[in-house]
Amino acid sequence: MIDRRVQAPDRFRRFSTLNFVLIVALAAILLASMGQVAPSPKQLADGLPGMANLVGRMLPPNTEPDFLARIAMRMIETFQIALVGAAIGIVLSLPIAWCAARGVSPLGRGNVLVKAGISFLRTVPDLVWALIFVASIGLGAVAGTMTIMVDTIGFCGRFFAEAMEDAEKEPQEALAAIGANRPSILIGAILPDIMPSLINSSLFALEKAVRSSVVLGLVGAGGIGQELKVAFDLFQYRNASMIILAIFVIVLLMEVCTDKLRARLQ
After folding, report:
1. What is the pTM of this model?
2. 3-state class (DSSP) for residue 237
3. How is 188-214 classified by DSSP, letter by letter?
4. For residues 259 and 117, what is the distance between their CA atoms, to the nearest angstrom?
5. What is the DSSP letter of 108?
6. CB proximity list for 220: less than 8 A, separation 6 or greater
């Protein structure tokens, strides 16, 4: 006789009482948080006239030639901050990721400390790093470049290390069998295998750096964000709308360029 009883999938059979309690607790926290910080329909309705008034004051954007020339120079500075910071960060991420990768690191079990350092760099928000560098180095683009560099190391260091850990083991074992040392295995087996992943992560890091660099000026770290802060501080809303459009254009162009590069490399 055929047993027609349908068994539940493994994920449901493993659903314990503890999991149920955790889900209920998470749902309760979510509902309580929504009641405290989520906007209510009344708040949204009351805020719409103010938003409409602000948008009206921002239009039309300021298109005076002198202002556009100043914005163009700031946009160039913003791109330079993103490009230089990301380039330095990507280069430094490679040896740092090698030291953090499990089973590949020349530090052995010391890779845990390096991985923790990468996590720390990634955990601290960009604006906090910018404040630290502005306080230590001073106002300007250098602080912004340092911020992007540190943020890129936190981003690329993690993904580079994971790619090294997932690299094919057979070529590594073959080189190790003929007496190759760890740097030789890295150069001869690991990097050729994970190069597409490295390039893909680097392009994402550059795209992320451009988006991050446009707001660093809010805390004095150079770039177009500094002009945006001045415009809002002085209630120059037409200037602010033009700056926002410029930021949108540069971010959109960067996304298009990185998408095309990524598609070409694949």
Report:
1. 0.78
2. helix
3. IIIHHHHHHHHHHHHHHHHHHHHHHHH
4. 30
5. G
6. 130, 134, 139, 140, 143, 226
- Give residue 106's Cα distance to chain centre: 27
Q: What is the pLDDT of residue 150?
A: 92
What would the two tokens of residue 78 be?
Answer: 């913003």
Neighbouring C-alpha atoms within 13 Å toward the C-beta of 118: 28
Contact 115, 100 (CB under 8 A): yes
Q: Tokens 């683009």 map to which residue?
A: 141
Alpha-carbon distances, residue 9 vs 12, 20, 22 (angstroms): 6, 17, 20
Query: What residues in the chain have per-residue pLDDT under 50?
Result: 1
Q: Which two tokens stand for residue 193?
A: 């295998």
The reported pLDDT for the residue numbered 1 is 47
The rounded distance, in Å, linking the Cα atoms of 70 and 201 is 33
pLDDT per residue as tens digits for the range 210-222: 888 888 877 877 7
Sign of the dihedral defined by the CA atoms of residues 163, 147, 207, 58, in that order: positive
